[in-house]
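Re: weekly structure request thread

Next one in the queue (114 aa):
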Amino acid sequence: SKRSKSYLEYQGRKFLDRFDPVTYVKLTEQMDSHDIGRGRGGSAENVLANVEIPVCVLGIDSDVLYPLREQEELVRGMPNAELKIIHSDAGHDGFLLEQDQVAAHIKSFLYSYD
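Done, posted below.
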């Protein structure tokens, strides 16, 4: 949509003003190499299986950076997790643009444990 394109162009300009390319490369390398099992005595699966608190995982149906299959994997790995899907054409930035959906899911989750 025109709104999404305009928003993404604006965010892209802001991003370029804040980060130089080398910093961005280093940041993404760190994100890609993070292992939640490191220092916790096991694999990511074992770590997730030991998360006992209720967890609400939000996924965006058009996100290619973090596809829904990854959110589904997280939910399958945690014994007390639920997946809520944000419907958006804006991809990964849907969590910024679809604030009403995000807020509704978070409120519903929090109120269910009130």
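The first helix runs from residue 2 to 18. The CA atoms of residues 26 and 104 lie 35 Å apart.
Next request, please.
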